Amino acid sequence: MTNNFSSIGILKKIYFYLAPQRKKDLFILFFLSILTSFAESISIAILIPFIGFFINPSSYLVSDLLMGFFDAFNINTTDDLLKTISFLFIAIVIISGFIKIKFVRLSNNFSENITSDFRRTTFDFFIKQNFSYHAEQGSNKIMTSVFHKSKHVSLIVFHSLNILNSIIVSVAIISILFIFNPLNTGIIVLSTSSFFFIYFKIQAISVSKKGKEISLRQNFEIDIYTNTVGYLAEIILYNLRSFYSKLFRDTSEKTAKLQADINSIGMQAKYYFETFIVVFVIAFIYLGNLTEKSVEMNISYFAILAFAAQKCLPLINGIYKSSIIFKGAAPIILDALSILDNTKFESKSIDGAIENKQPIFFKDKIKVEKVKFQYDKNLPYILNNVNFEINKGDKIAIKGKTGAGKSTLTNIIIGLLNPTEGKLIIDDIEINKNNLLAWQKNIAIVPQSIFLNDATILENIAISESLNKINLEKIRHCTKLAQIDSFIETLPGKYNEKIGERGVKLSGGQRQRIGIARALYRDANLIILDEPTNALDAETEKKVMDSLANLKATIIMVSHSDTSLKYFDKIIDVNEFE
Q: HSE on the CB side for 119, CA within 13 Å?
């Protein structure tokens, strides 16, 4: 994670990933900020003659500067003048209020839409990456970025908008005060700005450190949760509930404490400032010899100053508070945005190239030519100089000792992993990133670990198909081949029976056979199975293997079982390629 990004740099990086519509929304909000500042400055400007009128009304009626205005609106008496100024002041305040309400609504919608966009963009990025990326990053980082850290993007954007709006409005109001009394206004602005700047600098380092720690602890919270789900059986058996509960509780409480500290630092400046401003105003009145000035001047200035302070001080405090929140969220945002680094985000162009290629129809043979593979350049080769051919319709077994590279080899054939060296050739066409998807449309897989969703059996076999489009007869045929149909018919809901999260209501063998039925349902030319029968009894294994052997599709199966090798035309021993 890059720690040297300025606030402007972070905002530029967020802006880079904004959707075109969000960029348009941003300019609308900026325009509303300008309107708000304009309305506020006019309300202050109108307040000056409004206060002056009550002190000395006759001076306005004889003013040469205002005679043209009075003639145009037929203002001849002090009552006419009072009505006009009152109407203008009230109208401007109401208009300003409506603009502020509109700004608040749009800015909230804008920031939450950005959260949604960022979640979607991050999820799309992850889902488009190749298999090796996920193997390196792990699912925890994905979950943390998509569900935990994405909200901080909108947090920073929302507070940045508030800072911008507050600065524009404050500058507009202060400009009017400068016109009326530049010296005193300059002293007040300089003192107030210095107070918040010094206080912000004192707190910024602490807030940034707390933000970094929150980012790390958010990752750790996801780690604890996923580990608890993965180790659930052992946790229950070994009575480790209290250990994991305490671990999560301690982490969660520490994260909450850090966030509370950041929030407190953002809020407590207001109370320090209130103390400072009371002392400062009394000293200012005493040292400024204001009593020597005219009563009219004193009353007018302090009335305008009070109105401006009522407008500005919450804005200035809001700038400080938003800056503190920005500082605390910045490390979390940088960690999340690093995932979408331009050097990594290549999936869109790759997808475009894939979709534009002609489909590959597997008609003749698969050729693995001089393939070598290593997971890291500093690690030894798992596969070394692998060469073989598979004809269409062949039934192929891949065997070898544990860790010899059986699953790695099938992942290369599937296209989940790219060989470090060598080629995968289908019908004399070398597979590359431009035709990979076309090749993968020919394949169905039964992975070693079958994932089942907390949905019906029907939905778990026909994944991604809507219920009204699922071919039930085809489902029945596939489950019959997978030797799971008899069991399904005993269930209360039959094919509409929900099987629990990760298929918890099924045995290991039943989950495997659901996985086989899922692969068969896709009518693939090539079916690759990674030890699909290791949880089956001998009789069920024989029935499943008989079904697979009679398929027209090409079959590649990783197996440790010597009893199943008789069903295959060719046996590839990966021990020969170490």
A: 16
Q: How many CB atoms lie within 10 A of CB 387?
A: 11
563 and 486 housed in the same domain: yes
The distance of Cα 284 from the centroid of its chain, to the nearest Å, equals: 50
Cα(191)–Cα(236) distance, integer angstroms: 62
Q: Are 223 and 238 found together in one domain?
A: yes
Range of the domain at 437: 352-577
3-class SS string, 89-156 = HHHHHHHHHHHHHHHHHHHHHHHHHHHHHHHHHHHHHHHHCCHHHHHHHCHHHHHHHHHHHHHHHHHH
Model confidence, pTM:
0.63
319-350 pLDDT, tens per residue?
A: 777 778 777 777 777 777 776 664 444 444 44
Q: What are the pLDDT digits (tens) for 276-287?
A: 777 776 776 666
Any idea what the CATH number is for the domain that residue 165 is in? 1.20.1560.10
With respect to residue 1, please indicate whether it lies within any of the assigned structural domains: no
Number of domains in the chain: 2
Contact 459, 467 (CB under 8 A): yes
* DSSP-assigned states of every residue in 21-74: HHHHHHHHHHHHHHHHHHHHHHHHHHHHHHHHHHH-HHHHHT-TTTHHHHHHTT
Query: Phi, psi (5° rounding) for residue 104?
Result: -60, -45
Least Cα distance to 558 among 572, 537, 540, 542 occurs for: 572
**Residue 484 to residue 510: CA distance in whole angstroms:** 7
Measured between alpha carbons, how far is 151 from 147 in angstroms, rounded to an integer? 8
> 264 with 366, same domain?
no
Handedness of CA 169, 174, 175, 177 (dihedral sign): positive
